[in-house]
Every structure is written in structure tokens, then in C-alpha cells.
Amino acid sequence: MRAGARSVMKWFAGLYVILIIVQVFLAGEGIFGLNNIKHDCTTTKIANECLGNSKTLDPHRALGFFLTLPGALLFLIVALLAWHGNKRIRTVSIVLPILLFIQMILPGLGRWVAALHPVNAILVLGLFAWLFVQLRRETPAEPASTPGAALA
Questions:
Q1: Where are the domains of the chain?
Q2: What angle do CA 40, 45, 50 make, to 5 degrees?
Q3: pLDDT tens digits for 77-95?
């Protein structure tokens, strides 16, 4: 069961690397979309209403929800089932879901704390990439063979 969970964790980590890169793209698209809305509005009052009611960051928020709540919980379950023998890999695989949960909370904590949201994203991306590389380097355990098994 642990070998299967480790295999799932490896591909789960690789999927997270890809999805976090997509998240960065969606954040950039949403931010520059806000800038386009601001230039389309004619007065300051209308501009504030346009920006306040904008939905340009909704795709980033939606994918972020799935990455930080159900995805993080599933990853934690897989990491606990895998319970990797390498202490560093085990620690990173358990800390990552916690960092993902913190990632969800950061934007609502005020301007200066929310500024840590992209910093934490870079950290999480790096850790998932490191974990994926480490798990890819491992060779699957071969079944132990006995000398008499080849003759039978």
C-alpha cells in the first residue's frame, strides 16, 4: 500500500507543479485584466465601481480553492499513507499541505501580510518541484529473490 501511495504522491506533486504555474498565469491575467478595466472607465467613481465588481481574478480564486482545500487534504492523506522512509521527503510532504492552507488564508490578512501570498506560492512551487524530482529519482523496490526460486 505504501508503494502505491508513494507513486500517487510522486505524480500528485508533479501535477501540483503544473497547476501552480497555471495559477501564476491566471493571477497575472487577472491583474492585467483589472488594469484594462480601469482604463475603460471614464471617471474615478465609475473606475472604483468597475474594479470593485470585477471578476477578472475569479479563475485564479477558483483553481486556488481546489489546490488549497480538497487538493491539500488529499495530498496530506496520500503523504501519511506513503509515510516515506526518507525523513526529509516525509517532512516536506507533510508540511506542503499546511503551507497550502496558509496560502488560502494570506490574502485576507491585510495588505502587508497578503503580500506574502506570492512569496509563499514560490516556496510551495519550489518544494513541490523538489519533492517530484526526489520521488522520480527513487527506484522501485524489487522483490527479494531467493537462490532456489530461479530453479523452481
A1: 2-137
A2: 45
A3: 999 999 999 999 999 999 9
